[in-house]
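Target chain:
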Amino acid sequence: DFRGFLDGTGAQTMFNFPTAIAVDNEGIVYVWDSVNRTIRRIAQDGVVKSHPKGTLANVTSLDMLPGGNIAAADGSRIRNFSSYGNVNDMAGAGTGYEDGFGSDSRFGSALAIAVDADGSILVADTQNHRIRRVSGAKVTTIAGSGNIGTVDGEGLFSSFSYPDGIAVNTVGTIFVHQRSGETRTISPEGKVGRSSF
């Protein structure tokens, strides 16, 4: 069990506490190597390469954006990481809660993200107990009152308790994992319910 930082092929590589992954349409895997603070790229032939480190700091979740860029939840920011290593802030600037555009928006400090079919980024805003959407640079809250609880209902009249995982299927149903272990659903119409899983 060797930990470190080494690019190469297959077993002749080293990572140090990888904590998030995303897979593109070609089967290429992107890994957030947390101690080394960089995104590593694993090709189908097993070759591992490191992207330039940019300014990423505390990534908790990754997903692929249309066109091949990577969305990263980085602390209280949502960021766009290009294949060339460029990092741009999309939304968020400091911890808090605020809908709005770009740096005028605020998120809690622990985030999970998923990209939907339209290219919008869905955010499980753990500390704010809400589900948010980033479309372009616009941030809106789509579900959750901000009160801690497990209350079903329409959009902002529902409640979540530390949502810490999120996924979306091809028809637009959102699945939200809560720290308690429960899985909630948000229909394409915005109604929050319980998963049958």
User: Anything to note?
Assistant: The CA atoms of residues 183 and 196 lie 8 Å apart. The chain has a mean pLDDT of 93. The first strand starts at residue 8 and ends at 9. The two ends are 35 Å apart (CA to CA).
